[in-house]
């Protein structure tokens, strides 16, 4: 499995956007024969050993120093472990089985758990999301994959009306332990209908928990927590992060590891300005913080991890320390996550603010296709740096000038 | 097995002329009533309430179906007959009381009544076990009652009191009962169908993956003719047949979706035909005759229980009232309403029970009286129940409000030493 072998594709390069094509990571050397054969009935000893290998190698590296793991492998291992621990957990979605997952997140699960627990569906988002909800009503724990969250719009009635609201409408009689997961937000050059960020939409619905992992540790811990959680969880991943490698601690590799839902993580401590971000933007914010450090601005970066419930306590505590706030998101600006954070800070920590809150979001346009336009339509590291400098009154560029 | 992929031709009940001379007295045999032109608003419609029917009987229905049946072996025992009769009377009395309460202001919002369709609910649901599930639409009061939810709980829910089956948080359109496996109550048409398919999926999963060998729970999905044009319906017909799920899709074709007539909305009005297109039997049955519905239901539910897969049952039925209590119901032809009122399922069953000597007039009257008392008691109970307290507003949003990972003592769950005992065996 390629997570043991550092490949040039996986090391993140500063400021670069990764173009990930299907299957690029699956040139994984050791897996080739299993992929090639693809016949479910050939269960030779060699295959058996190869299937065991990922976890075996994880255990082997237990005591060594920092281990690296891609987000893709983190998600795969989390699903694997949860399915092994609880027979009520099953995965359903398009191409999750024989195709090994549209983005290979569910690779190997079909061979291991069989077609009754890893279900390939027809192209019926509304249908299979609803089937998942009905199964969850009776106590099963479905993990419904949307190929991207843009397609969840075809099933949004079920995510919101039959999943999120049911515990309330039934006054606690029927809870819905379902997870809706999939890539969210822009990828690279996929056009307007494949690039929307749904954090703000789902984040406004009471009854849903909305999680946004960044690193591999986030991915593992939050997905495991989501699967074990008795409420509906919308798990927003990011396609461009799937191939990125992050160091994981030994604790994170334990099969019972999970992260709390509703708690943000302070990725980098600072005292001059608070930058909140989630998903891919955390990486950008961290790089921006390094740049700002050279200019003498010590930025604190908060990885939100959870949009609903939003960790207002951590954000406000940080703002009270630094007195300045920059929120970063890729979604549309109006009614976005940054708007909610800004309102929360104004309500709770108004007296502590030394500058207006800076909101960085995607441009207020459907995503263009042309590469240079797309780059302009989403926040870049320079935008975060500029905004932080503005918040610290170090910049002469006025607010309205930046797109 | 009496269900084939072909239709079941049911001859409609022939009627004697009713006392309105301007009506068309002789009706020919046809399966679907002709109401082209029923969008014309005619004279004032006389709403025919059930009390008029029971006492005055100005309209006489001669059910030749009932006549035929009384010559054959009896289709149901006395206990079953009385059970079904009581269920139908309860449904009718309850819905009539709802209308009264609504106009007195005790009930509010959207209320959709089931008068006239009781044969479908009683015919199907009375054959189920407690563990079987029922999923319905917004016209769900009677489905909940038939499944066993107490009348008191349903009435309190409609009044919005805290003693309701959903503590007043659901309302008329969202009847949930975990105990009786009533999975809602959905306002969006078509929304319940995938949820029902998921409940059926669970039954199959429990049997095959979790190895609960005796799990043969069946799910019934009730929905209307308007829903049969919705995308989710077709998606679920496909997946239910593909995976052979233990579900019965019951179409309550009452010919009207609010004011949209089924013929105006559907390219091929025969909904039962959509079943074979997806690989399951499609059956058409006279939904005003509870005995016929019961026969078809036995077959369909039996099929599902044996693991032979889904069935699509189209019940031709009719709602005597408007779509909801706010609907003025001007578009439907009074002739059509009169024709169906003459086929009242309760009257037909009563006639059958008496003629086949399964019950006496006195016994049936006793049942009606008992049901009246139950409904009165339900209203009293609901009236006297308290409204939800203020603190209830924020309750029940989540089953686990703190979010997994933080235990009740505020510490991270993953730090708890006992937590690692559930370690995955990989």
Structure summary, number of beta strands of chain B: 9
Give the largest chain-chain interface (CB within 8 Å). Answer: A-B, 65 and 63 residues
- Structure annotation, total helices of chain B: 14
Helical coverage of chain B, percent range: 25-40%
Oligomer: heterodimer
The main pleated sheet of chain B reads as:
5 strands, parallel
Q: What strand line-up does the widest sheet of chain B have?
A: 1-4-5-9-8
Structural class of chain B: alpha/beta
Query: Over all CA atoms, what is the radius of gyration of chain A?
Result: 21 Å
Query: Percent of residues of chain A in beta strands?
Result: 5-15%
> What is the succession of H and E elements of chain A?
HHEHEHEHEHHEHEHEEHEEHEEHEHEHH
Helix content of chain A: 25-40%
Average pLDDT reading of chain A: 85
Summarize the helices and strands and which ones pair or pack.
The complex is a heterodimer of chains A (403) and B (426).
Chain A: H1 32-37, H2 45-60, E1 67-70, H3 71-85, E2 89-93, H4 109-113, E3 118-120, H5 125-137, E4 141-145, H6 156-164, H7 166-169, E5 179-183, H8 199-203, E6 209-211, H9 216-228, E7 233-237, E8 245-248, H10 250-253, E9 265-268, E10 273-277, H11 280-294, E11 299-303, E12 306-308, H12 312-322, E13 325-328, H13 337-349, E14 358-360, H14 371-377, H15 381-391
Parallel strand pairs in A: 2-3, 2-4, 4-5, 5-7, 6-7, 10-11, 10-13, 13-14
Antiparallel strand pairs in A: 1-8, 6-12, 9-11
Helix pairs in contact in A: 3-9, 5-6, 11-15, 12-13
Chain B: H1 50-55, H2 64-69, H3 78-103, H4 118-125, E1 133-135, H5 141-147, H6 151-159, E2 176-177, E3 182-183, H7 192-208, E4 219-224, H8 231-242, E5 247-253, E6 256-257, E7 260-261, H9 262-265, H10 274-277, E8 282-286, H11 290-305, E9 311-316, H12 334-341, H13 345-355, H14 361-384
Parallel strand pairs in B: 1-4, 4-5, 5-9, 8-9
Antiparallel strand pairs in B: 2-3, 6-7
């Amino acid at each position: 499995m390629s997570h043991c072998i550092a490949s040039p594709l996986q090391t993140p390069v500063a400021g670069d956007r990764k173009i990930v094509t299907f299957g690029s990571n699956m040139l994984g050397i050791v897996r080739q024969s299993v992929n090639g054969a693809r016949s479910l009935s050939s269960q030779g000893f060699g295959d058996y050993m190869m299937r065991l290998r990922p976890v075996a190698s994880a255990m082997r590296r237990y005591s060594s120093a920092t281990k690296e793991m891609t987000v893709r492998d983190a998600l795969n291992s989390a699903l694997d472990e949860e399915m092994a621990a609880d027979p009520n957990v099953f995965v359903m979605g398009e191409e999750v089985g024989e195709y090994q997952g549209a983005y290979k997140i569910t690779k190997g699960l079909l061979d291991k758990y069989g077609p009754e627990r890893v279900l390939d569906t027809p192209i019926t988002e509304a249908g299979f999301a609803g089937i998942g909800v009905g199964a969850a009503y009776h106590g099963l724990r479905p993990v419904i994959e949307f190929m991207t969250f843009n397609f969840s719009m075809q099933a949004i009635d079920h995510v919101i009306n039959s999943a999120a609201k049911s515990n309330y409408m039934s006054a606690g009689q029927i809870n819905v332990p379902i997870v809706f997961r999939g890539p969210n937000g822009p990828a690279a050059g996929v056009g307007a209908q494949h690039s929307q960020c749904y954090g703000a939409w789902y984040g406004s619905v009471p009854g849903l928990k909305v999680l946004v992992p960044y690193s591999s540790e986030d991915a593992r811990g939050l997905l495991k927590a989501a699967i074990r959680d008795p409420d509906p969880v919308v798990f927003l991943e990011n396609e461009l992060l799937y191939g990125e490698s992050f160091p994981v601690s030994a604790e994170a590799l334990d099969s019972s590891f999970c992260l709390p839902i509703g708690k943000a993580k302070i990725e980098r401590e600072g005292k001059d300005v608070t930058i909140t971000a989630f998903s891919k933007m955390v990486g950008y914010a961290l790089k921006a913080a390094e740049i700002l450090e050279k200019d003498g601005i010590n930025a604190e970066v908060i990885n939100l991890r959870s949009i609903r419930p939003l960790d207002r306590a951590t954000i406000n505590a940080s703002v009270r320390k630094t007195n300045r706030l920059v929120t970063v998101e890729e979604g549309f600006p109006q009614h976005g996550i940054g708007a909610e954070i800004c309102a929360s800070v104004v309500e709770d920590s108004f007296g502590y603010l030394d500058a207006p809150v800076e909101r960085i979001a995607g441009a207020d346009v459907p995503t263009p296709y042309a590469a240079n336009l797309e780059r302009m339509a989403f926040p870049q590291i320079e935008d975060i740096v500029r905004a932080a400098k503005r918040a610290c009154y170090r910049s002469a560029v006025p607010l309205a000038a930046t797109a | 097995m009496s269900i084939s992929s072909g239709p079941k031709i049911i001859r409609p009940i022939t009627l004697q002329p009713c006392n309105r001379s301007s009506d068309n007295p002789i009706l020919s045999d046809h399966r679907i009533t002709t109401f082209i032109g029923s969008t014309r608003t005619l004279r004032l419609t006389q709403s025919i309430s059930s009390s008029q029917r029971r006492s005055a009987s100005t309209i006489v229905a001669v059910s030749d179906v009932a006549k035929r049946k009384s010559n054959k072996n009896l289709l149901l025992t006395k206990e079953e007959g009385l059970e079904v009769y009581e269920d139908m009377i309860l449904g009718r009395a309850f819905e009539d009381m709802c209308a009264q309460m609504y106009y007195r202001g005790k009930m509010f919002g959207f209320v959709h009544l089931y008068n006239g369709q009781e044969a479908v609910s009683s015919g199907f649901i009375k054959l189920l076990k407690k563990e079987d599930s029922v999923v319905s639409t917004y016209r769900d009061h009677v489905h909940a009652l038939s499944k066993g939810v107490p009348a008191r709980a349903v009435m309190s829910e409609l009044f919005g009191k805290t003693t309701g089956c959903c503590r007043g948080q659901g309302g008329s359109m969202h009847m949930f009962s975990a105990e009786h496996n009533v999975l809602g109550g959905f306002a969006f048409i078509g929304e319940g169908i995938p949820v029902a398919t998921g409940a059926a999926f669970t039954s199959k999963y429990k049997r095959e993956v979790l190895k609960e060998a005796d799990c043969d729970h069946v799910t019934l999905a009730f929905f209307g003719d308007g829903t049969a044009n919705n995308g989710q319906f077709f998606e679920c017909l496909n997946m239910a047949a593909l995976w052979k799920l233990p579900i019965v899709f019951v179409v309550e074709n009452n010919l009207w979706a609010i004011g949209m007539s089924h013929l105006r909305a559907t390219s091929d009005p025969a909904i039962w035909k959509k079943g074979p297109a997806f690989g399951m039997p499609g059956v058409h049955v006279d939904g005003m005759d509870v005995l016929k519905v019961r026969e078809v239901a036995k077959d369909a539910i039996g099929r599902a229980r044996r693991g032979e897969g889904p069935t699509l049952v189209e019940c031709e039925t009719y709602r005597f009232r408007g779509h909801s209590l706010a609907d003025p119901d001007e578009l439907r032809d009074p002739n059509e309403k009169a024709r169906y009122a003459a086929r009242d399922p309760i009257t037909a069953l009563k006639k059958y029970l008496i003629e086949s000597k399964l019950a006496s007039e006195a016994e049936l009257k006793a049942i009606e009286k008992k049901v009246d008392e139950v409904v009165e008691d339900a209203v009293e109970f609901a009236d006297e129940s308290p409204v939800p307290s203020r603190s209830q507003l924020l309750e029940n949003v989540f089953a686990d409000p703190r979010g997994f990972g933080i235990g009740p003592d505020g510490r991270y769950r993953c730090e708890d030493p006992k937590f690692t005992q559930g370690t995955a065996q990989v």
